[in-house]
Amino acid sequence: MLKFSVMQLSDFSYDLPERLIAQYPPERRGESRLLFLDGASGALRDQRFAELPALLSEGDLLVFNDTQVIPARLLGVKDSGGKVEVLIERILDQHRALAHVRASKPPRSGRRLVLEQSVEVEVGERVADLFELRFLDPRPLLQLLEAVGRMPLPPYIRRETTPIDRERYQTVYASRPGAVAAPTAGLHFNGPLLEQLQAQGVELGYVTLHVGAGTFQPVRVENIAEHRMHAEYVEVPEQVCAQVRETQRLGGRVVAVGTTTVRALETAAAGGAIAPYQGETEIFIFPGYRFRAVDALITNFHLPETTLLMLVCAFAGRDRVLAAYRHAVKEGYRFFSYGDAMLVTGAGAG
């Protein structure tokens, strides 16, 4: 009788010096380093992100996540006087949202919070780890957040937000407001690079996945198959489905920019062939998963023992990915959201 090994959380651990966690973006967008990992052979090449066009070919398709990060973090006090921090997870309508609320004691339904610039909020029902909040300000919620909110930097960036984060913790092609974390692989692209790629015959396509705060939540089970992903909203339009089908027909590569784009495309291809999709996704991609829509991946370096690292390991093999991470540590690459990037081809791709 065959026995199948169960992957454990500790299988996705690695040592990272804190000095390599990028606290600020590079001076100019696109100046990052790029580590190329050939998933078929495990070969590594140290390059610059600006050299990406030389690694792509006419007929390849780059797919981006066009979600836009909203200034979703607000500080304030409860009506009882205790300090409170609010992180919007999802906007429900013009004045209501689901949010994470951090306080010494959770607020009770019916109580009020006073947030940035005296904005009052009424606390509604608690739904799992989230609270329904009703903003009493007359402005539409997106407009209000743009006026008073703070950019929700990841917890490993240990500083307060600055004006530069409004621009740099956002992709240049962001157009669909709704994320509380950036699809960070896309932060490396600038306008001239996108124009150069198009000029050499690389197609561009766009999906939407509104990244939630759950992307930073640790996996709390040792047997990773028992982990359950948080739900995120995704849209994969027919236009990008047609681009994927045509790219595959002509022998080009579908190159996903970021793990969120992978999850969006693979959600849309869950039935075997890619098809338009709109709704929630809880897809969890870890080693053993068979990819249907993606041939290569541009991604940043991810935290140990996270679902993001597991996805990359599923794509190119755990041993090869962790070897690449050890190389990146040795060579002083910058890690996480404002850090450097990888281009990874699949274990069966060239």
UniProtKB/TrEMBL annotation:
**Pathway it works in:** tRNA modification; tRNA-queuosine biosynthesis
Q: Which GO terms describe its biological process?
A: tRNA queuosine(34) biosynthetic process
Q: Which reaction does it catalyse?
A: 7-aminomethyl-7-carbaguanosine(34) in tRNA + S-adenosyl-L-methionine = epoxyqueuosine(34) in tRNA + adenine + L-methionine + 2 H(+)
Enzyme Commission code(s) on record: 2.4.99.17
InterPro entries associated with the record: QueA (IPR003699), QueA_dom1 (IPR042118), QueA_dom2 (IPR042119), QueA_sf (IPR036100)
Q: What is its main location?
A: cytoplasm
Q: Which GO terms describe its cellular component?
A: cytoplasm
Q: Does the keyword Cytoplasm apply?
A: yes
Which SUPFAM superfamilies did the record assign? QueA-like
Please indicate if the UniProt record lists Transferase as a keyword: yes
* Annotated localization: Cytoplasm
Report the Pfam families cross-referenced here. Answer: Queuosine_synth
**Mind listing the UniProt keywords for this protein, alphabetically?**
Cytoplasm, Queuosine biosynthesis, S-adenosyl-L-methionine, Transferase
Q: Which GO terms describe its molecular function?
A: S-adenosylmethionine:tRNA ribosyltransferase-isomerase activity
Similarity remark: Belongs to the QueA family.
Q: What is the annotated role of this protein in its UniProt record?
A: Transfers and isomerizes the ribose moiety from AdoMet to the 7-aminomethyl group of 7-deazaguanine (preQ1-tRNA) to give epoxyqueuosine (oQ-tRNA).
How would you summarize the oligomeric state and partners of this protein? Answer: Monomer.
Q: In its UniProt entry, what is this protein called?
A: S-adenosylmethionine:tRNA ribosyltransferase-isomerase
Q: Report the source organism.
A: Nitrosococcus halophilus (strain Nc4)
Q: Quick one: which gene encodes this?
A: queA
